[in-house]
Amino acid sequence: MSKARSTMGQCGITSSKTVLVFLNLIFWAAAGILCYIGAYVFITYDDYDHFFEDVYTLIPAVIIIAVGTLLFIIGLIGCCATIRESSCGLATFAAILLLVFLTECVVVVLGYTYRAKVEDEVNHSIQKVYSEYNGTNSDAPSRAIDYVQRQLHCCGIHNYSDWRNTRWFGESKNNSVPVSCCQPSIGNCTGVLTRPSELYQEGCEALVVKKLKEIMMYVIWAALTFASVQMLGMLCACVVLCRRTHDPAYELLVTTNSYA
Questions:
Q1: DSSP conformation letters of 180-248
Q2: Which pLDDT score, from 0 to 100, does residue 201 have?
């Protein structure tokens, strides 16, 4: 009975160490993925920053990049601690994983908080951005509007008729909207309102809100996914650490260089 229990214990420790090594490889991959997601959020935010004034929305992205960098270090510590069967290393590994896990929980909470604020932020700022449009490439709000209309296939705030209420429309006096409102399949489109079928029919406000919410969901799902992986890592590290500390048979395996 004692022998069977010992065999089962060694089987469990071997499985835990194997899973730990595998998880450390996942942590390295996760580090790259999280840094990519964080960078993607920054780049996308730069394209839409005129529609979204609250810079604190970037906090989840900053944390995600920091976590990604930390995960690379965690993977290195975990591999060394698992291979060398270091109690101190395993304890440090588990403690850092716990810290990262809690940090990712904060990311999820912040992500949901800022995701809920997206619509109010866009509604508050989009009217101002459109009112500042002057149609030149040297003007940042104008570039932002043209970029969004081309990328999201939209025109105006709610639809193309919103351009009638802008200063640019009144000053240009040509009864047309920016050519960025033109559908790419239409040749020689000049944006004139007498040919509305050539223009994008959907407004930009709803699409900008949808895009920004999608970006925030990427951050939330990335944090949730890797937080669950880290929970498994903490569990395996604790199993190996507890067995190494309390199991005499396991100590004997270590001292005789016969690793499980």
A1: GGB-TTSTT---BTT-GGGB--S-HHHHHHHHHHHHHHHHHHHHHHHHHHHHHHHHHHHHHHHHHHH-H
A2: 92
